[in-house]
Design goal:
The chain has about 475 residues and is of the alpha/beta class. It has 17 helices and eight strands. The longest helix is centred in the first third of the chain and has 39 residues, at about 55-95.
Length: about 475
């Protein structure tokens, strides 16, 4: 692969990614929680994990960036690690690790899920970059470095420890020395504990647990929905068909190579975790390089090129199965804008909504059950009202809250003169907990934009 191709490839990737750094912390709710956590570390000198057990290495590293540079700096941190991820792929290419190197690099670099998270203040890409370089050092038989970087990845995302399973399999299969495998495992565990140690200064944290679903059907729906959404429903189904056709042609030799067994094991590990935690397509992100690497080995050049075009088409078009009513689980197939179009529209919506909420001037105290965390994260126009257990404008009558399901609390707020408002389009959280609608006392509106004088641009992810 020529130097000119590599330079042009990275330049084009940067040209497409850099403008996205300016669109808030991201469409993911957790990106805004991470930003607030980082700001609290720097300005309040306290560490409360952004969610669950936290991602301490990521949150502490972001503290000065978010506090001094806002979302541009926070997103640029992810972009830097995405570039490191691409350099890892180029290192593997130099080793002759790929059959169709240019196509593989294009597919992974420009994959919608990669570009989205490379420009958001989330920990997925930093963890993936460390796991990729751990894999690079595995191929070079540099076991200690591979183990060390696995530990760094755990500091960004503790679930990265699952990569220890294929890592140890590779070392044992290649080295055939149990003592080396055990020593590497011990080093990886020590490294993980070291880089995860900032959690010890956290004020509070909770153990990770699957989100409560009202039924197994809903859980299965979440698994299928987010798994297919990772690459696109239509794209994933067509890609699976393409891979099955060529897998059947090579089924005699498919499992005989160490390379294939390693990547199938990695796919199995992350798929197993996804059965318990299926709440975001990004939870499958560490498995995606394995899927692309296997496709590179399995498919002839023309078929692999077709696969790459199919996967990249998800930027602009997708087959959506979601119904217009979030309280219904009936699939309603229709074509709509792709992942990247949807992501940019949502990020614009969040920024516009944030500005409209800041400027809102309401005559009556109003609780909007929507808008958290992005409207208030790292935003001096808002403060936490402990008595009401919600966020309030410093200058105004607007309050923002998570879902209020306690009837007694709703009645108490109504008696105090509050207007409680929910957006019908954003009823998914309420449905997950088994409710069929909002309780009496909550006014459900059809169009949230009608609440504000300031125009709201963009389109929320939950709008159909």
């Amino acid at each position: 692969m020529s130097v000119k191709f590599k330079q042009g490839f990275i330049l084009l990737w940067l040209v497409l990614c850099v403008p996205l750094l300016f669109l808030g912390y991201g469409s993911d709710f957790d990106a805004w929680r991470v930003a607030q956590c980082a700001a609290d570390i720097w300005e309040e000198h306290r560490y409360m994990p952004s969610r669950s057990l936290g991602n301490p290495l990521h949150e502490f590293a972001l503290a000065p960036l978010v506090s001094r540079g806002g979302w541009v700096a926070g997103n640029a941190f992810s972009l830097a690690f995405a570039l490191l991820f691409l350099l890892g792929l180029l290192r593997l290419e130099k080793q002759g690790h790929f059959r169709h190197a240019k196509l593989l690099l294009v597919s992974l670099a420009f994959l919608p899920i990669i570009m989205k998270n490379a420009t958001s203040t989330m920990d997925y890409i930093p963890a993936l970059a460390m796991l990729t370089w751990s894999y690079v050092f595995l191929q070079e038989s540099r076991w200690q470095l591979a183990a060390l970087l696995l530990g760094v990845a755990c500091g960004f995302r503790p679930t990265s420890l699952l990569f220890l399973i294929p890592l140890l399999y590779h070392i044992q299969a290649v080295n055939q020395d149990l003592s080396t495998t055990v020593r590497t495992a011990a080093l990886a565990l020590f490294s993980a504990a070291l880089f995860y140690a900032p959690l010890l200064v956290a004020e509070s944290f909770v153990l990770p647990a699957p989100v409560h679903r009202s039924s197994w059907l809903l859980q299965a729906g979440q698994i299928g929905f987010h798994a297919l959404r990772t690459l696109g429903v239509g794209q994933a189904l067509l890609a699976a068909l393409l891979l099955l056709v060529f897998a059947r042609k090579n089924e005699q030799t498919l499992l005989q190579t160490h390379f294939v067994r390693f990547h199938l094991l990695n796919l199995a590990v992350w798929s197993a975790l996804f059965l318990f935690l299926p709440d975001a397509p990004e939870y499958l992100l560490p498995a995606i390089p394995s899927l692309i690497f296997l496709s590179d080995r399995l498919l002839p050049r023309c078929a692999f090129a077709a696969l790459v075009l199919l996967l990249l088409s998800y930027h602009v078009i997708q087959l959506d199965l979601r119904s217009s009513n979030p309280l219904q689980l009936r699939p309603t197939p229709h074509l709509r804008g792709g992942w990247s179009i949807e992501d940019v529209q949502d990020r614009c919506f969040k920024l516009s909504f944030r500005a409209a909420a800041d400027a809102a001037s309401l005559q009556r105290p109003t609780v909007l059950i929507y808008g958290l965390p992005w409207a208030v994260a790292v935003n001096p126009a808002w403060y936490w009202e402990p008595d009401l257990k919600m966020f309030a404008q410093k200058k105004g009558n607007l309050y923002l809250s998570t879902a209020i399901r306690d009837t007694a609390r709703i009645n108490h707020l109504v008696e105090r003169g509050f207007r409680l408002v929910a957006w019908r389009t954003a009823s998914w959280e309420n449905m997950q907990l088994g409710r069929v609608g909002w309780p009496e006392g909550v006014e459900v509106i059809e169009e949230i934009r009608d609440m504000f004088d300031t125009p709201i641009r963009g389109k929320a992810l939950n709008e159909r």
